[in-house]
Amino acid sequence: LDCPFQAMEREVSAAFGKGEPGEILSSAFKLKVTREDICTLQQPCWLNDEVINFYMNLLVERSKKEGYPALHVFSTFFYPKLCSGGYKAVRRWTRGVDLFKQDLILVPIHLRVHWTLLVIDVRKKTIKYFDSLGQKGDNICKTLLQYLQEESREKRNLELTVSEWTLRSVSPQEIPQQTNGSDCGVFVCKFADSISRDKPITFTQEHMPYFRRKMVWEIIHQQLL
């Protein structure tokens, strides 16, 4: 009999194999992931929005189980919309969601050719920026704090006490850094995976080839391993 690892490898190879690029290999959360999308998980490709958004939704599903922090994740399209149109442009993105009742809010950020992650911890009143290339995102943190201020006014009729909030870019000494130009999206997904479990981030660049294959399986089966 196959060990689970061999079965997983077979499925991953099949997903990466020949087939119609537009074939839908997974659909849930009002999202569809095609073979072409899945193939961005092959080395040395950059992950696309579809893969990252689908994976982030798997984290949200897991967080509904007992013992996990309450989690809200914004789509990769949220930050560019906020930047281009201001609060008005994204005001309706939280219909039916009280951000201030969440424990954690994750915002995946796409900077043209690089993925990073912004993490709002509502419990600790912190906004942190995680970048696997060690760049600072202090302005991104400020933009999101401003968004929270407007959201609080609009939805709760309450002024956010800005002085209670701490903003910072996590230093490259504190989190694993990528050693190539292609794995930023995987780093973002795995940062999000650890953070959404309140677990320390312990992986390294060496784990990336395995993480990429594991994510293929998780997306196809709509289930985190």
Detailed description of the structure:
This is SENP2 protease. One of its GO terms (cellular component) is nucleus. One of its GO terms (molecular function) is deSUMOylase activity. InterPro entries: Papain-like_cys_pep_sf (IPR038765), Peptidase_C48_C (IPR003653). This protein has 225 residues and is α/β, with parallel strands linked by helices. It has one domain (4-221): Adenoviral Proteinase, Chain (3-Layer(aba) Sandwich). Helices cover 40% and strands 16% of the residues. The chain has 7 helices and 7 strands. The chain has helices at 4-16, 35-38, 49-63, 78-90, 138-156, 184-195, 208-221, and strands at 24-28, 31-34, 71-73, 104-110, 115-121, 126-130, 166-169. The chain has a 5-stranded mixed sheet, with helices on both faces. It has a two-stranded antiparallel sheet with strand order 1-2. α1 crosses α7 (208-221) and α4 (78-90) runs parallel beside α5 (138-156). The chain is globular, with a radius of gyration of 18 Å.
CATH class: Alpha Beta
Structural class assignment: alpha/beta
CATH superfamily: Adenoviral Proteinase, Chain A
What characterizes the major β-sheet?
5 strands, mixed
Strand content: 15-25%
Rg is 18 Å
CATH architecture: 3-Layer(aba) Sandwich
**Mass-distribution shape:** globular
How many distinct beta strands?
7
Q: How far apart, in Å, are the first and last alpha carbons?
A: 20 Å
CATH level 3 topology: Adenoviral Proteinase, Chain
Q: How are the strands ordered across the major sheet?
A: 3-4-5-6-7
Helical residue percent? 40-55%
Q: What is the H/E string?
A: HEEHHEHEEEHEHH
Low-pLDDT segments: none
- Count up the helices: 7
Mean pLDDT: 94
> What is the domain tally?
1
GO biological process, one term: protein desumoylation
GO molecular function: deSUMOylase activity
GO cellular component, one term: nucleus
Domain Ubiquitin-like protease family profile: 31-195
